[in-house]
Amino acid sequence: MYRLIHLYQPIRELSSNQILGCEALMRGMPPHPQSPEELLIEAEQQGDMIQLDLSSIQTIIAQQIKTDTQLTFINVLPTTLTDIDFLSWLKPLGQEHSTIVFEISEKGQIQDWKKLQHTLMALKQRGIRIAIDDFGAGSTNLRHWVDLAPDFIKTDKYFMTDIQGSLRKQHLLKGLLTLFENTTELIVEGIESEEDFRLIRQFGVKYGQGYWLGRPAPKGLTMPDSILKKGG
Fold it and tell me: What residues contact residue 60 under an 8 Å CB cut-off, 6+ apart?
């Protein structure tokens, strides 16, 4: 069992600055606070990727407050979701699942799309919502993600890098808003400045995440960003 802690970064509704939920960000337990990348590399070398993932999920769910109405976004590897024992492992946890969102990274390797779709359907029946993370970073056929019918799409930070000077990125972001309108909520990641925030809010983006909106912090201590102090 890995000894992990998690920091929580807020995801905000841009029009009101209200917190939709927080993404749980994995870290190693002090005095060896490894980054997620270091933990994943170590786990891959030891053949423990799924065990690391399960340890992270279990730690987060155990920390959840049942009366909390905000969503908790939890990163999950595709290989964990398609593992034969995953649904059986999740069942006895006995936690209210209506505030859980599993994030699946487009960067992850998916070998069996049908099995993944079956697992996600079973999770939705338990009240768990699904998000596609790092959207646009991989080479996956768009059709696959449409078939999975996610509740949220989280765009890769690439789209926000230098977006002020890139009409192509602006058009792509607007195109995604149109593509997923009335079916899937779009969350734009990588909002690092007031200028970026105001630009994408003008586009009609509903939800966002990034340092400008709030930095990662221990649970219950998510700090308000300067944008709140300025009143938007």
Answer: 6, 24, 72, 74
pLDDT value for 143: 75
Reduce the DSSP state of residue 115 to 3 states and report it: helix
pLDDT of residue 62: 78
Higher-pLDDT residue of 161, 230: 161
Q: How many helices (H) and strands (E) does the chain have?
A: 9, 8
d(CA 22, CA 34): 21
Give yes or no for residue 198 having a pLDDT over 60.
yes
Residue 132's nearest CA partner among 108, 112, 111, 96 is: 108
Q: What residues does 67 pair with on adjacent strands?
A: none
Bridge-partner residues for 73, per DSSP? 23, 101
Nearest to 71 by CA among 108, 104, 103, 36: 103
Tokens of 162: 């230098």
What distance in Å separates the CA atoms of residue 218 and residue 20, rounded to the nearest whole number?
A: 17
pLDDT at 1 over 60: no
